[in-house]
Amino acid sequence: MNGTAPNTAPPALPTLPPVRPSGPLARLGWAAADGWTVARRDVLHWLRQPWELLFGLLFPVLMVLMFVYLLGGAMSVPGGGDYTEYLMPGMFAMVMVFGLGETVTAVTTDSTRGVTDRFRSMPMASSAVVVGRCLADMLRSTVTLVILIGFGMLVGWQWHGSAGAALAGFGLLLLLRFALVWIGIYVGLVMRGQGGIALIQTLEFPIGFLSNAFVATATMPVWLGAVADWNPMSSTVAAARELFGNPAVAGDSWITQNALLMAVVWPVLLVAVFAPLCVHRYRNLSG
User: What InterPro entries does UniProt report for this protein, alphabetically (predicted)?
Assistant: First the structure.
């Protein structure tokens, strides 16, 4: 004997991946937990680097100041009313649209850095990454909207209806953002590079300005006004103005007469199309 104690440690057991839940409720809970884990990663990133959120707010704040104080004196609302109150619901919707670029940038950055491929190699729900991305963007959009609402009040905007109607208006704005998030995720997954970011940033302005956000569509040429009326953003803006009790210009077309209905229908249709496309695209990424 050499005086050393024999190695009595048990052999290491192989590490097995977690078993995928079998029941539908168990799978749903598994996907929700994984989705929140992905979303929490982005929330922690914002807490460590809050200036990104502040810089994202700088542009809409400058837009409000420009339209209220530089251009507002030359603007008039058909039928009468304060232009600042007419403008702010449109600015709230514009912020929801400009969030598209942030979504595409985040998805593209994760892809180019290999984070998306790492997620795909892990034993997690295949929907967790896109759901987590959506949840994180909605949290950020809610914070941005709340801050911009406070700034709007500072420059003279207010709602005149009930608190319930105002909350419904804010809900419609976030519903539009929810639909646009799925479009942004899909573009980021399909165009995994700077091309997707450039495409969305190029389209944000025509989508936002070709609407009733800043001027009534009745002041546009007839054909252009018809295009603007059928912009989903226009339905959300018109519905928000109605719920806030702000000045609104109702057109004669069916789409403008049913703004509240279409402010719900448009986002639901977009989510129904792009959410499954996002999950399918993520499952079939080629690396």
Answer: ABC2_TM (IPR013525), ABC2_TM_bact-type (IPR047817), ABC_2_transport (IPR000412), Nod_factor_ABC_transporter (IPR051784)
Task: Give the whole-angstrom CA distance, residue 94 versus residue 100.
Answer: 10
Q: Token pair 């892809």 is at which residue?
A: 111
How much of the chain exceeds pLDDT 90, in percent? 39
Task: Write out the DSSP string of 148-207.
Answer: HHHHHHHTT----S-HHHHHHHHHHHHHHHHHHHHHHHHHHHHS-SHHHHHHHHHHHHHH
Instruction: Report the candidate in 169, 153, 139 with the shortest Cα–Cα distance to residue 245.
Output: 169
Q: What dihedral angle (degrees, nearest 10) is formed by the CA atoms of 211, 216, 222, 227?
A: 10
Q: How many CB atoms lie within 10 A of CB 161?
A: 14
CB 172 within 8 A of CB 93: no
> 99 and 141 in contact (C-beta within 8 Å)?
yes
pTM, full prediction: 0.84
Residue 88 burial by Cβ neighbours in a 10 Å radius (0-12, 13-18, 19+): buried
216 — alpha (psi -120 to 50), left (phi > 0) or beta?
Answer: beta
Flag whether pLDDT at 142 surpasses 60.
yes
Q: Residue 82 — φ and ψ, nearest 5°? A: -75, 130
Question: First and final CA of the chain: distance in angstroms?
Answer: 57
Write out the two tokens for 64.
Answer: 């409000």
* Residue 2, helix vs strand vs coil: coil
Per-residue pLDDT of 180-192, as tens digits, reads 999 988 988 888 6
